[in-house]
Write a structure and sequence with these properties.
UDP-glucose 4-epimerase activity, UDP-galactose 4-epimerase, domain 1, 14 strands, 2 domains, Rossmann fold, NAD(P)-bd_dom_sf, carbohydrate metabolism, alpha/beta, UDP-glucose 4-epimerase, about 325 residues, about 20% strand, 3-stranded mixed beta sheet, NAD, 7-stranded parallel beta sheet
Length: about 325
Amino acid sequence: MASILVTGGAGYIGSHTVRHLLEQGHEVVVLDNLQTGHRGAVLTPHFYEGDIADAALIAEIVRKHSITAAVHFAALSLVGESMKFPTKYLEANTVKSQQFVQALVENGVRRIVFSSTAAVYGVPEVVPIPEDSPKHPINPYGLSKLFIEQYLQMMETLHGLKWIALRYFNAAGASEDGRIGEAHDPETHLIPLVLQAALGQRESLSIFGNDYDTPDGTCIRDYIHVRDLADAHALALQALADGKPSGSYNVGTGKGYSVLEIIEAARRITGREIPTVQAPRREGDPDELVAQVDKIRQDLGFTARHSDLETLISSAWNWHANHPHGYR
């Protein structure tokens, strides 16, 4: 089994991936600055609180733990905040990631799985979105991730780095046993916001726009269970270990649910009212974002097995109902 460094392993998707890799028998080392992550979500004893741009720390971790591959989650990820503070996002996500990758290469690590995003596409020309769609990010968050995908390509040319970038759509859900789940501050994701309203932590849920070109007028998104995302990272690591070529992959289900479908399912599962209020559209929200998933299925053997609407919401509800204040 391999010794793997996971940056951002105290975060939502990172912590679930760490758990999955541990279950596979790998040694997993987490590096996280705990700016948005939670120490209580880290299930490995090998934890370092620090910065991904700290080259000396990276060298120490690689040497001490004989690291052979990395999974790189650490990033800022609020689209709205990136619009207000673009330089902050390019510094944290792009510049520091470049420094991190450089430190890996200098210390002999030649395999990396990168946490990218569907935001690299911007407003898609075709739905479901294939990986070769034009990349026109409409926010600095998406741009910061696209730059790193391009940098990884360059590092492969220059230094033989092998990489896979996974472009997520909408992560959701929690672990089956309810031990780890989704806890952001501020919370911006739809399903946690819906469940906070169900718990009475919010007076109501805002529905941003009801005039989209969709069957019920609300946005449609491709939701994937965080457990399936963790599996995708493990498969990507194995593909690199097996010598498969570098590349970028969508990670989704190929099916979308509307905002109203999510709310109705949550009402049924929780047995709560979940009051809603109508709000204006948000700038830059496309009608529909759904992944084309043929490539990852064919190349990596990935299939989303836990991403039906019932599992997504019931697992998240189990977490939120038992952890109403997150990890605090």
